[in-house]
Every structure is written in C-alpha cells, then in structure tokens.
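Researcher: Going back to the complex we discussed earlier. I've cleaned up the inputs and rechecked each line, so this should be the final set. Can you rerun the prediction on the complete assembly and write out the structure?
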Amino acid sequence: MSAQRPRLLRRIQGLMFKLPLMISCEDFEDFILDYLDGTLPSRQKFIFEMHMKLCRECREYLEAYRTSLELAKSTAQEEAPKQPVPEDLIAAVLAARKG
Amino acid sequence: MDDLLTALQNGDGERTQSFVREHIGWMLAVSNRIMRDPHHGEDAVQNAFAKIFDKIGQFKGDAAIKTWMHRIVVNECLMLMRKLRRTQTVMVDDLQPMYDKNGCRIEEPWVTMETPESLALQSDTRAQVNKKIMQLPDNYRIVLVLRDIEELTTLEVAEMLQVSEANVKVRLHRARAALKKLLEPLMRGLPE
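Model: Rerun complete. Updated structure for the full complex:
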C-alpha cells in the first residue's frame, strides 16, 4: 500500500468531498450499480462523474470493476458452444419421458 | 407451435427426440454456468425436461417457448443448489472496498490492467475466472450468474429468488465487488 495517496492529500480530498455537489468514495460506491445500468438520474450522474474526475482511486476501481465483470461474461459465453451434449444424457431424458 | 405442443403432450417419440436434441445444448450450457459442475448441470437438465414435459399443457404461448424453458431450467438449478452444500467459499464481507476515516477509498494503484481481450489469449484464464466465481457463496454467485451472465432483469431475478429487487441489487453489487477483488491478481498480471 506504499503508493497510496499521501495522508495530507487524503484529508484534503475527504474535506473536498463534503462540499455541495460532491460525494465521498463510500457514497460513490452506492451509485455504481445504477450508473452502469444507465438508470442513475441526470443530477446524480453528474455528481458521480464529477467525483470520478477528481478521484483516481475511484476511477481505477470502477475500471477494474468493469473489467472483472466483462471477464466473467466473456469467459461464460465462450465456454457455451464448446459444451458437447453427452448422448447418455439425451438417452436418459428420453427414457424418463417414456416412463 | 400448437402442432409441436400437441405432439409433445401425446408423447410422439420422434418429435420428442428432435425437441430434446434441439434444446438440450443451450439448456446444459445454462445449467453448467449456474451449477459449475457438469454432473450437477446434467441432473438439473434432466429435472428440467421432466418438468417441461409435465407442464407442457400449461404453456400458454404468451412468451417464446425458449424463454419459458429457460426459466424452468434456472429454477431447477436453484432447487438443486439448495439441496447441495458447498464448501470452501470466501467471506464476501472480507472482499468489499475499504475506506479510511475520511471516507476516501483505499485502493492499490493500478500500474497495469490487463484487458479481457488480452486475458482471453491466455489458455488458463477461463479456468481461473470460473474458479473465482465458484468461490463466491451461492446466495451471491447465483445473483451474479443470473443478472450478468444469463442477463435476466433485476425483477426477474427477484421473482425467481423470492426476494425484493433492492435485495438483488445489494447482493449483485457485493458479488461484483468481491469478484473484482478475487480477480485482481489476474488483472494485474501477477502470479497467484
């Protein structure tokens, strides 16, 4: 954790994020889901994006959050067509249907 | 469509076989994504077909048959999952973001961040991502899989799990945050 923001800068940012139209990093976290879903009202979206411009940690956090999500989606989708269906499974389904 | 439904209801062997062969592939893919275990995935598919044949007379045709079947296979996965006890899951609370006393995020700087495209070129990425998703406790993993991988809406997931939409959103965000933390070594290009 040596390359984190210096303590003084963190204190300044902490105070700055208390100003009107500003949110803390904790509040930023609460908006992420709706922001990515595109359902954040325009005023909140403006405030969210303002915080993102000022806060490198949240900017990088959101980027990593998005990347991990894309990774989960893309790996799940790529495995789908490669799954061969075992013939004995088909036989079992049909046998159960015949009773 | 009515012709197919009648044939299935009447137990027409040839039509039943072609119906099973047409749909079993995607159903198995869905159940494997949820169950993450091929044997359990196959069990869920068998149960789902039994339910489909049992309820085919109730299918109203107000939705595509594939949508109706998708819901059944997901429900069968959920039912099977409730019966199974998983071990070696992580504590989601331990993987949530951290803040200092000023409310500022504590995040290790990202010197490099691999992209999904670059990671896709590495042969073991899929296995590693699957392993991390599997480490999430079921009540978080299932929401992540249904919303982000099966692409159901928040409302659909809430109805399936019989919880509120707010609960789905909270679980989804916490699951995503935990997964991001678990995938960090991979995305930072660090060995595990």
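Model: Worth noting: Chain B has a mean pLDDT of 90.
Researcher: Good, that matches what I expected from the previous run.
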